[in-house]
Amino acid sequence: MAEKEIKKAAQPKNNNEKAELESTYTVKELSGHAMELFGRTPECVRAACTYYGKSDQKMTVREAKNLVDKYMGLEVRG
Prior knowledge:
- By secondary structure, this protein is mostly helical.
- The chain is 63% helix and 0% strand.
- Helix 5 packs across helix 6 (61-72).
């Protein structure tokens, strides 16, 4: 009975709590697995994080994916 209560308490109640339970990674760790996680080169991941000022912060895979997708969708101006 006590085990069931503990498992229930550990489950997130909303999206904010769910994000807090996700693991965070450095840009180096994320870019090291760029192809598997994002389908992009490590350079793209590092460039996206640097562009948005997140190169020195830890973030979840979901946050990094959002940054990379947003960065790759930017228009290139010449």
